[in-house]
Write a structure and sequence with these properties.
about 450 residues
Length: about 450
């Protein structure tokens, strides 16, 4: 294990102002940074000759300050070794107890995360090493507005091949939220002030639209997806998750897709398609994007947050031609991250990762549904979560009792503007396979306690 060098005190800022000779001012400055904790116990001070050259003092000034602080117990010196800080906050008596952090849940079933245990570390590291070894020097400059051309080209090919999208160009963002925010600001600048959104849906994106100055109106979702006939008058934009609606798990039916495109043409509107969970399907054939049916009316959003990791901060958006100049292309993620993802795509590593992930998630979903027994679940044909209906039981109470047991679950009402039929959302993407049975048992116990209570 590499020894950390962050405890070296060579570059600490010292306040040498004030009255007195130089050695007294240095002694006072060092004493202050030690007592404040800027220099912790064990921090190594530079040799007296080095510090004297850095400060422009004589070496005598440094040795006098060190000797005084050694005598006071703040420093310790050994022959042949560095002078180190000896004093710590515990030396000054009992320290005030710091507030305790909230204990994280032992089992987390909240939606929104892929399996972080199976992030393809080796293949991603190989892509990064390839970029570092072969990228021209110019690639280490500022990112190109809109994204690196290499990634944009290979990503466009991937979307055409795997998602049925019709894209000649795609721009790079730091995620779906970032891309959606850019689109919302462009909508507002173009005079569109009202956007419809699925109800229930991801409320984070609703807040993004509101911050951009748009009025957000909810449109109900049923077993066929968004109720197109209930999009209110005055709305000229709509946000949808047609491949796998969050959180209900429904798929936008062919009839609704056609109706949505007809609506957009009638009102001269824009469809913003969040391609949520499109890569993970188990009991049905994959469905292509709505964007591929009419690229002149649809903005397509996507990211690697649910397929690889949100820590990468990589996403994309494809725009209709008439919107290209209206959406701000900057800023973009770091160029090296973009190039690494491009290499990851080019070598087929992304496709291999998705195939392996689908098998893993399907087996985990089957195990969880089996462990939940007769409890009514829905939205299980695709994605990384399912919905558990709770007729006659307060979902908020189930969430509270589950938390006491060390189990985190999400109230379905957390994704609604208006509370309705009680239910909870269970994300199994980052659930350890060995914890499936325990998670189901604790949840069943929490439901039983909430129903009796």
């Amino acid at each position: 294990m590499t020894k950390s060098q962050t405890n070296l005190a060579w570059d600490v800022l010292l306040d040498l102002s004030g009255p007195g000779p130089r050695h007294e001012r240095l002694t006072r400055a060092l004493r202050t940074v030690i007592r404040e904790g800027t220099l912790g116990s064990g921090a190594a001070l530079p040799p007296s000759r080095t510090l004297a050259a850095d400060l422009g003092f004589s070496r005598w000034v440094i040795t006098q300050a060190y000797e005084q602080l050694i005598a006071e117990g703040y420093l310790a010196a050994r022959t042949g070794s560095a002078t180190v800080v000896r004093w710590s906050t515990s030396s000054a008596g009992p320290a005030q107890a710091l507030p305790r952090k909230a204990t994280p849940p032992e089992i987390d079933l909240a939606p929104g995360l892929p399996d972080l245990r199976h992030f393809p570390r080796q293949r991603w590291a190989e892509a990064v090493r390839e970029v570092l070894a072969n990228a021209p020097h110019g690639e280490f400059g500022y990112p190109v507005p809109g994204g690196h051309p290499r990634l944009r080209a290979v990503l466009a090919d991937h979307l055409r091949r795997c998602r049925g999208a019709v894209v000649e160009d795609v721009r790079i963002s730091s995620g779906v939220t970032d891309g959606f925010g850019r689109v919302c600001r462009a909508l507002r600048a173009a005079g569109i002030t009202r956007i419809a959104a699925e109800e229930p849906g991801w409320l984070t994106l609703r807040r993004v639209a509101t911050r951009a100055g748009l009025e957000v109106v909810g449109v109900p979702v049923d077993e066929d997806g968004l109720r197109v006939d209930e999009i209110p008058a005055g709305a000229r934009a709509v946000l949808v998750t047609p491949a796998h609606q969050f959180p209900t798990g429904t798929v936008l039916s062919p009839a609704r897709r056609a109706g949505l495109l007809s609506w957009a043409r009638d009102v001269d509107g824009v469809i913003v398609e969040d391609d949520y969970d499109a890569e993970f399907r188990y009991d049905r054939r994959p469905v292509g994007t709505v964007q591929g049916m009419d690229p002149a009316r649809v903005v397509l959003l996507g990211s690697v947050s649910k397929t690889l990791s949100p820590a990468l901060g990589l996403g994309w958006y494809a725009l209709p031609p008439q919107w290209t100049e209206l959406v701000d292309p900057s800023p973009t993620p770091p160029a090296l991250e973009q190039l690494a993802f491009a290499a990851f795509l080019e070598h087929g590593s992304y496709d291999r990762h998705l195939r392996a992930a689908r098998r893993r998630y399907r087996a985990r979903r089957d195990a969880l549904v089996c462990a939940l027994g007769p409890l009514p679940v829905s939205g299980i044909a695709a994605g990384l979560h399912l919905v558990l209906d709770l007729p006659g039981v307060r979902a908020a109470e189930v969430v509270r009792r589950a938390a006491v047991k060390g189990l985190r679950v999400a109230d379905l009402d957390d994704y609604r503007a208006t509370p309705r039929t009680p239910g909870i959302v269970l994300g199994y993407g980052n659930l350890a396979d060995g914890s499936v049975g325990t998670a189901a048992r604790l949840l069943i116990e929490a439901i039983g306690e909430a129903s009796r209570g």
